[in-house]
Amino acid sequence: MPVAEFHEQDLAGSRFERVSLRGSSFEKVYLQGSSLRSVDLSGSQLRGVAFHDVRMRGVELWNVDIYGELNNVVVNGVDIAPLVEAELNRRMPERTLMRPDDADGFRRAWPVLERLWADTVARARTFPEEALHQRVGDEWSFIHTLRHLNFATAAWIDRMLLGTAAPWHQLDLPWEEAPGWDGIPWDRTARPTLAEVLAVRQERQATVRRVLASLTDEQLAATVTRTEPGWPQEADFPVKECLRIVLNEEWEHRLYAERDLTVLEKEI
């Protein structure tokens, strides 16, 4: 039986019953409002998937690994999000610093991130350079991760807060599911050295330090609008959220990096 391929088609309202989709690939597929009954997703991998306002009944979750943002996630009548948050904070007390509300809070949080990342980079330097380009479990390589953080800082600090319309370096890397934009670097095949990527990173970190050094609570309470071509394009976006996004990116991606370096250690 020939393999069916669907490209740029609107199949809204379609009905699938007793259909086998084993081994199928779905990319940029929109399933809002869909109904799934007696569906077997065993062994599936879901990345960049939104489950907002989803209702599940009669669900079996065995040997499930979930990593993401949890809010109002009720399992068998219990909201597990606060429980997960409390446990993560217990394991990593410095995590509580990553949601500051005032300028001094941001100034306390940023040095913590720089210190933690310095330790992670020092660990990475003990690996062969080739290993730092190796993807683990279909996740980014260590080099990819640093390139993405450079992109995030350029987007939310240089562009949104400082007003530089196109602050990009050729090695900056948007997230995997990003739609793509003209004029924004997108080279996933580049293989820069760790030193080359860290040189850009040091400049971006210095920019964050300068912004935070002069940050006031009044500035933090303001909003910013950027409508020129590129990304982000936001109107009246809170300055506080721009900075929180950078903190979150730095915190979470370091955890990913440490996790993957541990896997690589066993393979070398």
Structural commentary:
The chain is mainly alpha-helical and 268 residues long. The chain has a domain at 100-267: Four Helix Bundle (Hemerythrin (Met), subunit A). Helix content is 39%, strand content 5%. The chain is built from 6 helices and 4 strands, in the order ββαααααββα. It has helices at 81-91, 103-124, 142-159, 194-214, 217-220, 239-267; strands at 74-75, 78-79, 223-226, 234-238. The strands form 2 sheets. A two-stranded antiparallel ribbon has the order 1-2. Strands 3-4 form a two-stranded antiparallel sheet. The longest helix has 29 residues, at 239-267. It starts with 73 loop residues before the first strand and ends with a helix. The model has no long low-confidence stretch (mean pLDDT 93).
What is the helix fraction of residues, given as a range?
A: 25-40%
Shape annotation = globular
Terminus-to-terminus distance: 43 Å
CATH topology of the domain at 100-267: Four Helix Bundle (Hemerythrin (Met), subunit A)
CATH architecture of the domain at 100-267: Up-down Bundle
Q: Mean of residue pLDDT?
A: 93
State the CATH class of the domain at 100-267: Mainly Alpha
Give me the oligomer status.
single chain
- Strand % is under 5%
Q: Main sheet: which strands, in order across?
A: 1-2
**Series of secondary-structure elements, N-terminal to C-terminal:** EEHHHHHEEH
Instruction: Report Rg.
Output: 21 Å
Structural class: mainly alpha
